[in-house]
Specification:
Number of strands: 17
Shape: globular
Radius of gyration: 23 Å
Structural class: alpha+beta
Largest sheet: 8 strands, antiparallel
Distance between the termini: 42 Å
Strand content: 25-35%
Strand order of the largest sheet: 14-13-10-11-12-15-17-16
Length: about 475
């Protein structure tokens, strides 16, 4: 397998946000604060009930290791823990140049990484020295008040808009209003910023329930299938509003959208980049795989008609120009659906941050333009810590590049395999192996997927039995 050129498409994008006279000597400090969304909802906002499991939070936090496919020397990357040496060797074999890596002391596995950085005085002092020695810019997964605090404390520069702009455009209320104002196909529904608006919105949409269809209530800042409730009856709605009234205290905000629940054919995510002069680039269009409303991975390239492709291209430009007019630059992911009739609803939600598809931009230089890919994770139930070498050997000739044909499983993140391992000996725990499954056809991709699933089962058979 030939080594890729040492170019970095994502780094090149963000360099465009730096003043031209500073670009040549600029360095990035990458920080994958995957928990950014929890800091965007305004304090004192009424929220729907939701369940968050500690093990899942720990896994999401360690997705940060995917940054190794974006951040390369001479840049610097902050991680919670050192990466497995086997993974670093694997990356080098694929042609990636590891960045300088700084590790942060975190109180526990669930602590937000930016909060951990602020609490680590030694690390902050080190960042301050780097900022004094070089033209250093902080490049986070998503900007929140914590990253602005890091910049103020250490002297590192920041890119893109201020936090209040990022928060503003991330709201589903903003997405709905934008979609309507731009004349894009918009799901029937309403924005609800008070109990009265919610009640009125339900009265207007109640005929949908009478037809045997459903509604959905979403928090304006809900993410990843959390912060939404499907409503299939008036009794369900009344039960929900009673709960919200109990949760509401004087002065608390209502930030919801109430929409018709559409029968969809596919979920589609597409990414755009808005430069400092307002130019909009459509970076990628990918089909989203979900389970119970929760993101599981991507499948690309998606099969779209010419009309659907044109809809996304037109929407990307219109939305990007509006975002720029509202003060936003940088990368944004847009969630959309295609309904049973093939109609595109291109602006369900705007995520003004990196998303999982962003981390695949750094990998696409390895993958041929005609390749078919599924991005997915393999759930693991384990009773012992696994090394990268053991997983690599288990996958064997199904590992990407092992046969020299550009097909196979490309390991995208390994830290999530052992993140929940108990500190003491013994005990069953859950992990995930994040990958791209690459082939010349989706049939070949599915064959590789089945083979790898069977191979990985040999690593977890005893633990899976214990869990059962």
């Amino acid at each position: 397998m030939t080594s890729p050129k040492f170019d970095n498409p994502v780094r090149s994008l963000f360099a465009d946000l730096i003043p031209a006279e500073e670009r040549n000597d600029a360095r990035f400090l990458w920080l994958s604060n995957f928990e950014a969304e929890r800091f965007w909802a305004p304090a004192g906002t009424v929220q729907l009930p939701k369940i968050s499991q500690g093990d899942d939070v720990a896994v999401v936090n360690r997705l940060e290791e995917m940054s190794l496919f974006l951040a390369e020397y001479p840049d610097t990357l902050i991680l919670r823990e050192p990466s497995d040496e086997g993974l670093l060797g694997y990356l080098a074999g694929l042609g990636f140049r590891p960045p300088r890596i700084l590790n942060v002391r975190a109180a526990d596995r669930q602590m937000p990484i930016s909060a951990a950085v602020l609490a680590d005085e030694d690390l902050c002092a080190h960042i301050s020295r780097l900022a004094q020695e070089s033209n250093l810019y902080l490049l986070p997964f998503g900007k929140t008040r914590l990253e602005e605090e890091i910049a103020a404390k250490t002297g590192v520069k920041t890119l893109g808009p201020p936090v209040h702009v990022v928060e503003y455009v991330n709201s589903k209320i903003y997405s709905r209003k934008l979609s309507t104002e731009l004349g894009l196909k918009t799901i029937p529904g309403c924005e609800c910023e008070s109990p009265e608006e919610l009640e009125k919105g339900f009265r207007d949409l109640k005929p949908i329930l009478d037809e045997g269809r459903k509604l959905v209530l979403k928090e304006a800042m809900g993410v990843s299938g959390k912060g939404l409730v499907v409503i299939d009856s008036e009794a369900k709605f009344q039960q929900l509003t009673t709960l919200l009234k109990r949760r509401a205290k004087p002065g608390m905000r209502y930030d919801f959208v109430l929409e018709v629940w559409l029968d969809k054919e596919r979920d589609i995510n597409y990414q755009i980049f808005i430069s400092s002069d307002g130019k909009v680039r459509l970076l990628a269009i990918k089909e989203i795989a979900t389970l119970n409303g929760v993101h599981q991975g991507h499948r690309f390239p998606p099969v779209l008609t010419d009309a659907q492709t044109a809809s996304y291209e037109q929407a990307a430009q219109a939305i990007g120009q509006r975002l720029f007019a509202d003060g936003f630059t940088g990368i944004a992911g847009l969630d959309s659906i295609i309904d049973r009739e093939g109609e595109v609803y291109p602006a369900l939600e705007i995520n003004a941050r990196f998303n999982m598809s962003t981390y695949q931009l750094g990998l696409e230089r390895l993958i041929g333009p005609s390749a078919k890919v599924i991005a997915k994770y393999y759930p693991l139930v384990l009773d012992e810590h696994l090394s990268f070498a053991r997983v690599r050997d288990c996958i064997g000739d199904q590992l990407f590049g092992a046969m020299g044909d550009g097909a196979g499983v490309l390991i995208q993140n390994f830290a999530t395999v052992n993140v929940n391992a108990p500190t003491a000996e013994g005990g069953v725990f859950k992990g995930r192996l994040y990958t791209l499954v690459v082939g010349e056809s989706f049939q070949q991709v599915e064959q590789i997927d089945r083979a790898v699933t069977e191979k990985l089962a040999t690593l977890q058979a005893v633990a899976a039995s214990a869990m059962a």
